[in-house]
Amino acid sequence: MRTEAALFNLPAVFFVVVAVIYGWLTGWEEWVGLVCILLTGGLFFMVGIYLRMLAKRHGTRPEDTTDGEIADHAGEQGVFAPWSWWPLLVALAAALGFTALAIGWWIMVPAGALTVIALVGWVFEFSRGQHAH
Hints:
Elements: H1 2-25, H2 31-58, H3 86-102, H4 108-123
């Protein structure tokens, strides 16, 4: 994953350099563009740092070596819900939230309530009912 981390850290450095050049060319008076470019670089840095942390935690993966085989990834890949309606409710809550931006802020109240209910239901999906463990 070090390659993936470098793929995100290099653009981050680029955006920071471009932000400094942009600030210098505008006389440090146009702040919106400068902040946006710096935030873009920050987002790249965050993803790169996360991938670097994963590389330290998980070590070398089969796809990182030249002699890696498909069978090296055999086995359990994770726990997935056999059928779950909670992601649909989270998407509906997000749609309501974005609708609130366009129509009116009063829609944000039911969107927030639905978001809390859907996220709690999704997180505790395996804590009760048929798939509890």
